[in-house]
Amino acid sequence: MGTKLATIIVSSDRILTKGKTNKSGEIAQDFIKNYGLQLHDSTVVAEGYTPVDDAIKTALAADCKIIIVIGGTGIGATNFTPEVTEKYLSARLHGLETQVLLRGLESSPKAGLSRGIIGMTEHGGGSLIINCASSSGAVKDALSVIFPLLPDIFRDCESL
To answer: What is the pLDDT at residue 160?
Structure first.
């Protein structure tokens, strides 16, 4: 694959305050590297609507083609990652969302608690935005389903 830009956004107050390590972000970085993509940025932001929204806007402005947002997919008071993501999407990839859910359920019944969504910002192009729950297992499950399909996802776009 080419060297399209990828960004990782981790929404976690605990990681931001150094109470927890960013293992999920490191796993996502490994996927980006192993698939020959270029990491533009890996950032940790506070939980909540505005911090996630600002980070996605920044990634889109930098023309990142793959934006991985980790965390904020549950039902907590500060979990707005799906709501923020949805406003940027032109084409939801419901089938991929289902595949990720099925993969996650093989490991944990908690996978069904994630409301993460996946989609493209434009039909026939744009950026792919992926929501992952914050556990390292959830990130592995999601990216192991999605990354092998990147050539197909970007088939109708400029080459990935």
So the answer is: 47
